[in-house]
TrEMBL record:
It catalyses: N(2)-acetyl-L-ornithine + 2-oxoglutarate = N-acetyl-L-glutamate 5-semialdehyde + L-glutamate. Binds 1 pyridoxal phosphate per subunit. Keywords: Amino-acid biosynthesis, Aminotransferase, Arginine biosynthesis, Cytoplasm, Pyridoxal phosphate, Transferase. Transmembrane segments: none annotated. Homodimer. This is Acetylornithine aminotransferase. The lineage of its organism: Bacteria, Pseudomonadati, Pseudomonadota, Gammaproteobacteria, Pasteurellales. N(2)-acetyl-L-ornithine binds at R140, T279. It is found in: Cytoplasm. It comes from Mesocricetibacter intestinalis. One of its GO terms (biological process) is L-arginine biosynthetic process.
Amino acid sequence: MTTYTRKTFDEVMIQNYVPADFIPVKGKGSRVWDQQGREYIDFSGGIAVNALGHCPEDIVAVLRRQGETLWHSSNWFTSEPTLALASELVAHTFAERVMFANSGAEANEAALKLARRYAVDHFGYQKSKVISFKQSFHGRTLFTVSVGGQPKYSDGFGPKPGDILHVEFNNLDTVKAVIDDHTCAVIVEPIQGESGVIPAEPEFLQGLRELCDQYSALLIFDEVQTGVGRTGYLYAYQHYGVTPDILTSAKALANGFPISAMLTTDKIAASFKPGVHGTTFGGNPLACAVGAKVVETIARPEFLQGVQQRSVLFKQALRELNGQFGLFCDIRGEGLLIGAELIEKYRGQASHFVKAAAAQGVMILQAGPNVLRFTPALNISEQDIRCGIERLALALAEF
């Protein structure tokens, strides 16, 4: 039997990633084991994806049952699991219509295309401007990476899609300076995840809503990372009390099975007439069956309350850790999307902390070069939180 190692990655894979030195082979709950049988506490959650942990039994049961029934039938047909998941999302959100795709980038691509098509249908081709925010992240397609506010990801691929502006996050005046009757959409993350776990101020999102209404522009919330319970609410817009026109969801939607969704209203959805946009795998029965069970589970009020309780515990543990080591200048975020920003002395070294944590048996993330990011399973046990923090303390002691 062939043995694959980390060296194999360097030999056969395109080198656009730099994975950890160890290879996980098994996961259960919030614990992971590598090829050597070493155990890790998982505070990364597959980058906010494994909301119910690794291999939860009730989700595995759904996967097996649907896997023996119907995997894929294409969008020439619909399926019962597709309709079940769409119905769950409509029942628990502002949305009246849902479209499924396979990734957050595809959901955002669909949202941006829908916004421009809606503008063309109702106002004409001149209404095409998209306003986004510096340091935002919306995906890796050419359109979404251009809308994202990080040139390091969008430069070097030739001409970019036009009529896209980037202004300062949490600064409403910069939006007021550029929004006009030619603006078709404003796209925003309620919490900027990849750039450092930076929550939007409530007044900022409310101001965006009012400006979009004033200029007949659509407000798009990118909830790829914040959605499906991550902030202690099913979607973060419910915490802020600001309702978008279009919302995108992915990551945790099927607990690791690839799927995404774009949610919107009847009126806006009407601009996606048959043939205007599509996807081969989006909404396939296997992904939707898993997603329907995930949403049903996480949408329960008692589950979401548990996320908020764990958030308090996790942040307090990090503050106690910081009292011991004094490494963080800020600990922020909502629910179990938490960022700990390193003090000036250790700026640029987040990746070193991530490696040191792995060496002590705890998996964490970074959000940019200066912020440690924690996105554990939403149902992680108090015991696993304590154990992971103890291991993290050993890693931080090295610094």
